[in-house]
Amino acid sequence: MALTGGIPREFGNLSFLVSLDLGRNNFHGNLPQEMTRLRRLKFLDLSFNNFRGEVPSCIEIIAFTGNSLSGNLPNGLFNGLPILKELYLSGNKLVGHMPTSLSNGSQLKILSLSKNEFDGPIHSEIGRLSSLQQLYLGANHFTGIIPQEIGNFANLMELSMEVNQITGSVPISIFNISVLQVFSLWGNNLNGLLPRDIGNLTKMQFLYLQENRFTGT
């Protein structure tokens, strides 16, 4: 709609509001503190604006794709958002390491952090996200190896880690995720052999492994 300006404080009075979609406008500034009163709000889409600020703790889905969020991802994120199921933060300016507290998101099904400035390793604690179905970490500056614990994601259908600085080999545990449909690791520094176990991925539809250092057949 090309709407501009900030969000009125009066939005905090919409006590029965369940879903709020303000995506693809030109809103900016902080979210009004009054919005934290919206205890029934479950879905919040603020994608492709220029927002900052705190969000209500009762949210199940947050979409902040394509804003100007900067700084570090708060280490206590899931302490304030205990029932979050989908988190979209792609296309911002977030920096620093991936906080280990992300592993507290026991109900999280979709985690999208691609196209930011995250660096450092992908911690093994991420394997605690047992409900995860989609994981997008592409186009950051992640280093180190892919943790074996990613193989714990029995329900993972999409795994995207392309265009980082990840090294080492692909963990065999990943090839036990029988429902995996999209597997994107291109543009890293991965090496070694691809084991025959890759044939276990019988649901695979898209496989991107180019621009690495794999050897063998």
CATH H-level superfamily title: Ribonuclease Inhibitor
Average predicted local confidence, pLDDT: 90
Please count the helical segments. Answer: 1
Task: Tell me about the largest β-sheet.
Answer: 9 strands, parallel
Q: Approximately how much beta-strand content do the residues carry?
A: 25-35%
Strand order of the largest sheet: 2-4-6-8-10-12-14-16-18
- For the record, the count of structural domains works out to 1
| Number of beta-strand segments | 19
Can you put this structure into words, describing what you see?
It is built from 1 helix and 19 strands. Strands 2-4-6-8-10-12-14-16-18 form a 9-stranded parallel sheet, with no helix packed on it. The protein has a 4-stranded parallel sheet with strand order 7-9-11-13, with no helix packed on it. Strands 1-3-5 form a 3-stranded parallel sheet, with no helix packed on it. It has one domain: Leucine-rich repeat, LRR (right-handed beta-alpha superhelix) (Alpha-Beta Horseshoe), CATH 3.80.10.10. By secondary structure, it is an all-beta fold.
Briefly summarize what is shown.
This protein has one helix and 19 strands.
